[in-house]
Design a protein that fits this description.
The structure holds 2 protein chains of 2 kinds. Chain A is built from 16 helices and 2 strands. Chain A is mostly helical. The longest helix of chain A is centred in the first third of the chain and has 37 residues. By secondary structure, chain B is mostly helical. Chain B has 5 helices and no strands. The chains are: A mainly alpha, B mainly alpha.
Chain lengths: 583, 184
């Protein structure tokens, strides 16, 4: 029997134990933070395209203190860059993406009433919410938010007296991140045990949809890598507040010699990037999983190379733990060690190429439906390829040294990680919106959203590679301070133009999202003709998911256009016909 | 959730949680290895109290093993669980005594008399103690449940989970102690 029961407003919408509601909480919070983070990028892009010029919008948003006479204060510039990175990487593309789709899809696709522990699931969201409040609070402290970059490298992050943003803002950043890590760990534990234990009858691991595999592996990555960031942060907190010297040594600030001796900031980089690189895949793998589903459903073809897809997910996850040194090629690393990290990094190209090949092979001669979800999924394949290619340059220590910490790096990771993951997220939202809210999103608005986003995103990040090749360093407040970069201002103007256009079109998505919740066309039970279990649940979303017994799974998740069947999809619940092979 | 499934699920939750904790300490100890290979690393002689605490935490594990055997025979293991709790408290006291001995040696956590080696020693042992306090809370809850006869020979999941976690703390401490003894 289902677990459905009448609930109060508080238990249904606020302290909900239902995985579907918790998923929506993650999604809405993630979207809100996405808007905040994107707005920050537009604000600091104004300074980069028009250095030192006055903009009323800057003063309107940031006030006289941080944008006197409409000119962005250099300290606030650093703070905006830092918070933009932090919010987008952790709040949007980690919690917003995984929190939403793991919570929403895991019980529905494996055939479970709910997560293994609804309570831990609820706690996971509320720790995330608390982290969000603390991080946003840091925007309003006198010395401004954290400013040492999302990577919070010491000594800048370790010395409160270094710059305004290294003060209270950095403390709040660390508190917010600790709460965030707790949230991630609680969520991850739940996802793993739910997938391992609560699969319905017949749902073997090899019958799991690929998005389940992706979320399962992401959860493992998270529980193994976030604790290391926690240990790095713990030592940083001690350096900041108690005066230890884990990361600090022989520093003079404003003529005053500090007492710190014997510490090493490189130590922080080792610990940070041990998390930092798996974090890239924590962001990317859910999108890879979502795209697998969307491409297969909308090509009306089985996913090509299911086993290879699973193995490549595992290979990417494993390799992500042994490549962190490629972020540190210029730290004085032994060249031999550098070549080892180059080797392990370039190995990731193999499973990545397998995935791309399989996506293309799935699309090949498919009966393609260009839904907004499908467009974003194809957009993902595009950015995964273009961003991946520049990754080969950065993974090679000899080449990386030339473009390290330039806009080449910014362009690379925004395309391969940022755009790919956000496209995966958009694809997921458009695809599963009917299941989430029982309504359809407006297709036309979806198309406009995709094409404007797609063009403007490349308009922003593609030219950055040329800036980087010209040597323009990232994170600098003013590019015009150096005559050699003066000729690059025009490119920055183009980038900012596209950033603003890309930002504005997201309003269309948000409008479409909320409008459709209330006024969208009513969705049918299985609007995309999909095989997976979530589409067998009733349109009315009930706690417990299925009103009666949970259905039994009898085949894999990708029986599309299978000969011998009346429809072009065969649900996982349909028994194999006599003599029919599974796939 | 039926009992077998509950047993498996909760044990998996614990095992994965322990893997996570292991990585946290792996991060700290790998930081020690990286830092100790650089110049200016000072050796510290480990206080004898840490040897005593090692013995006591193992003893705590032994009592939990016995309590599991007793509950399997259908008897109430509350006394043995309480002895584990006592061992945990004594462990904490010895850790504090160990830190006092370090102070007597002039090895401080921060300030003039501190060094990266001494700071690491305090941080690692303190972080372990925080996890032991979590274990003590778990042992105490298990004890009160046992006093109230909540466990039977068919259902003693709470004792099993507490035992697994305590054994983990035990092994973790032995690793950390050996590591600190060798590296610091």
């Amino acid at each position: 029997m289902s677990d459905h029961h009448n609930e109060t407003f508080l238990s249904k919408y606020i302290f909900s134990l239902d995985h579907k509601m918790i998923a929506k909480q993650f999604l809405i919070t993630g979207m809100f933070m996405g808007v905040v983070g994107m707005l920050m990028s537009i604000l600091f892009r104004l300074q980069l395209s028009n250095p030192g010029e006055s903009f009323a919008v800057l003063e309107w948003f940031l006030g006289e203190k941080w944008a006197p006479d409409g000119v962005l204060d250099p300290n606030m510039y650093l703070a905006l860059v830092t918070m933009h990175g932090t919010i987008l990487i952790f709040w949007v593309l980690t919690a917003g993406l995984t929190g939403t789709f793991a919570n929403f899809l895991i019980p529905l696709q494996i055939g479970a009433r709910d997560m293994a522990s609804g309570f831990i699931n609820m706690l996971s969201y509320w720790f995330f919410f608390a982290a969000t409040i603390v991080l946003l609070t840091s925007l309003f402290v006198e010395t401004g938010p954290a400013s040492a970059g999302w990577t919070i490298y010491p000594p800048l992050s370790a010395l409160p007296q270094a710059i305004p943003g290294s003060g209270l803002g950095q403390d709040l950043w660390l508190i917010a991140m600790t709460l965030f890590i707790v949230s991630s760990l609680l969520g991850g534990l739940n996802y793993i045990v739910t997938i391992l234990n609560l699969r319905t009858k017949g749902m073997s691991m090899t019958r799991l949809p690929l998005v389940m595999w992706a979320l399962f592996i992401v959860a493992i990555l998270g529980v193994l890598s976030f604790p290391v960031l926690l240990s790095a942060s713990l030592l940083l907190v001690f350096d900041r507040t108690f005066g230890t010297s884990f990361y600090l040594s022989d520093i003079v600030i404003a003529g005053e010699a500090l007492h710190h001796t014997g510490g090493s900031p490189i130590l922080f980089e080792h610990l940070f990037w041990f998390l930092g690189h798996p974090e890239v895949y924590i962001i990317l793998l859910p999108a890879l999983g979502i795209v697998s589903e969307v491409i297969s459903v909308n090509s009306r073809k089985p996913i090509f190379g299911y086993k290879a897809m699973v193995i490549s997910l595992m290979a990417i996850a494993f390799l992500s733990f042994i490549v962190w040194g490629h972020h540190m090629f210029i730290t004085g690393m032994d060249p031999f060690l550098g070549s080892v990290f180059t080797f392990t990094t370039l190995l990731i190209a193999i499973p990545s190429a397998v995935k791309v090949f399989n996506y293309l092979a799935t699309l090949w001669r498919g009966s393609i439906r260009f839904t907004p979800a499908m467009l974003f999924a194809i957009g993902f394949v595009s950015t995964f390829i273009t961003g991946g290619l520049t990754g080969i340059v950065l993974g090679d220590s000899a080449l990386d040294i030339n473009v390290h910490d330039t806009y080449f790096v910014v362009g690379h990771f925004h395309i391969v990680m940022g755009l790919s993951a956000i496209y995966g997220m958009f694809a997921g939202v458009y695809h599963w919106f009917p299941k989430m809210y029982g309504k359809m999103m407006n297709k036309k608005l979806g198309y406009i959203h995709f094409w404007v986003t797609f063009i403007s995103a490349y308009g922003v990040f593609f030219p950055m590679h040329f800036l980087g090749l010209a040597g323009l360093p990232r994170r600098y407040y003013s590019n015009t301070a150096f005559p050699m970069f003066e000729g690059l201002t025009n490119i920055n103007e183009i980038i900012t133009f596209f950033a603003i256009v890309g930002g504005i079109v997201q309003v269309l998505f948000i409008f479409n999202f909320f409008y459709s919740i209330f006024y969208g066309t009513k969705a049918s039970k299985n609007p995309w003709g999909s095989t997976t279990l979530e589409w067998t649940t009733p349109i009315e979303r009930i706690h417990g998911n299925w009103p009666g017994e949970i259905p039994t799974v009898r085949r894999w998740a990708y029986d599309y256009s299978k000969p011998g069947h009346d429809t072009d999809f065969v649900p996982q619940t349909e028994p194999l016909k006599e003599g029919e092979e599974e796939h | 959730m039926d009992l077998n499934l509950k047993n498996t699920t909760y044990k998996q939750l614990l095992w994965i949680g322990m893997a996570s904790i292991t990585l946290f300490f792996a991060g700290l100890t790998s930081a020690v290895i990286v830092r100790s290979s650089e110049s200016g690393w000072q050796d510290i002689s480990m206080p004898r109290y840490f040897w005593y605490s090692t013995f006591v935490i193992i003893l705590g594990s032994a009592f939990l093993i016995m309590s599991k055997k007793i509950v399997r025979r259908g008897k109430n293991p509350a006394d043995y669980i309480f002895l584990t709790f006592v061992c945990g408290v004594i462990f904490a006291i010895f850790q504090f005594k160990g830190w006092s001995a370090l102070v007597d040696q002039g090895k401080f956590f921060v300030g003039e008399g501190s060094s990266p080696a001494s700071s690491f020693l305090y941080v690692i042992t303190f972080a372990h103690l925080i996890h032991v306090i979590g274990g003590l809370i778990s042992v105490f809850i298990t004890y009160t449940k046992s006093v109230n006869s909540k466990y039977s020979k068919e259902n003693y999941l709470g004792i099993e989970l507490t035992s697994i976690y305590w054994h983990f703390l035990d092994i973790l401490w032995i690793y950390l102690f050996a590591f600190l003894l060798y590296i610091i």
